[in-house]
Specification:
Elements lengths: L1 H21 L4 E5 L8 E5 L2 E5 L7 H8 L6 E6 L5 H4 L2 H7 L1 E7 L7 H13 L2 E4 L5 E4 L2 E7 L15 E6 L2 E5 L5 H8 L9 E3 L11 H7 L3 E4 L12 H9 L3 E4 H4 L2 E4 L1
Parallel strand pairs: 3-4, 4-5, 5-6, 10-11, 11-12, 12-13
Antiparallel strand pairs: 1-2, 1-14, 2-3, 7-8, 8-9, 9-10
């Protein structure tokens, strides 16, 4: 009996330590290794924001690793644009988690997978928000400014309609650029809000038609994360982008090289 009691006490201690370790006072940004796609988990205490979900259910492994085991709610999911390498995994996210709010653009896709996602969103009763540059959101100490799409511009293409998010937490700033292309990068560079960010998620998996030098000059990031598959037919990340980041002495972190990438502030 004493042996059993001791085991129970050890179990309680282990659970307590797990809870206290997970409920950190630091902001965490985790770029999930989902292959050729995007999925970023932002976490502060027991609040989570998921920006995109990658192409398939591999995002669930990342969420299971970094979210508290007892927490089955994600406060906000943002889909930057309806391409499968960004939304595919969200179908399983909605099946396995409660999602309080779902934000995306007016852009749609006729694919069966996208329709399956929208059906899951509806069945869970998540509040839906249309995101554009007039929207600002707050989750506890985290502030989110939506910088794109903009009602004042007419950029063409689904990539350029992608949701660009500026995250602010105390003095820390992070910019998530979806798959927007050079012309949108240049447009963003004129926005005073993006000056001197600490962290940037590089546009479109490091495509040469993504991050522009003007945006890099404006943001002056310390860290650049590239979410990219180890095997992809696009040549991502392109040498031009890697050379540009090195030119400005930005530390480059790549999911194809090191797997999940966690940044704490």
């Amino acid at each position: 009996m004493k042996y059993l009691i001791n085991l129970s006490l050890l179990s309680l201690v282990a659970i307590f330590l797990a809870i206290t370790n997970i409920s950190s006072d630091n902001l965490s940004i985790i770029n999930c290794d989902v292959g050729q796609g995007d999925a970023t988990l932002v976490q502060f205490k027991n609040n989570q924001i998921l920006i995109d979900g990658g192409p398939d259910k591999s995002v669930l492994s990342c969420l299971g690793e970094y979210m508290p085991f007892y927490d089955r709610t994600i406060e906000l999911v943002i889909l930057t644009h309806p391409e499968k390498d960004h939304f595919g995994g969200l179908i399983d996210v909605f099946k396995n988690y409660n999602v309080s709010k779902f934000g995306t653009t007016n852009s749609e896709s006729g694919s069966l997978e996208y329709k399956a996602l929208i059906n899951e969103v509806g069945s869970k009763g998540s509040d839906s928000i249309i995101l554009d540059n007039r929207v600002n959101l707050r989750l506890g100490k985290i502030y989110l400014d939506i910088l794109n799409p903009s009602k004042e511009t007419t950029f063409k293409g689904s990539n350029n309609d992608g949701v660009v998010v500026l995250l602010k937490y105390d003095k820390f700033k992070a910019l998530f650029t979806a798959d927007v292309e050079n012309e949108v990068s240049d447009y963003l560079s004129t926005n005073d809000k993006v000056q001197n960010v600490n962290y940037i998620k590089v546009n479109h998996h490091g495509s040469k038609n993504g991050l522009s030098e003007k945006l890099l000059q404006a943001t002056k990031p310390k860290i650049a994360v590239i979410s990219v598959g180890a095997k992809n037919s696009y040549g991502h990340p392109h040498k031009e982008i890697l050379d540009l980041l090195e030119k400005y002495n930005v530390k480059i972190l790549r999911t194809d090289q090191i797997g999940n990438i966690e940044i704490e502030n």
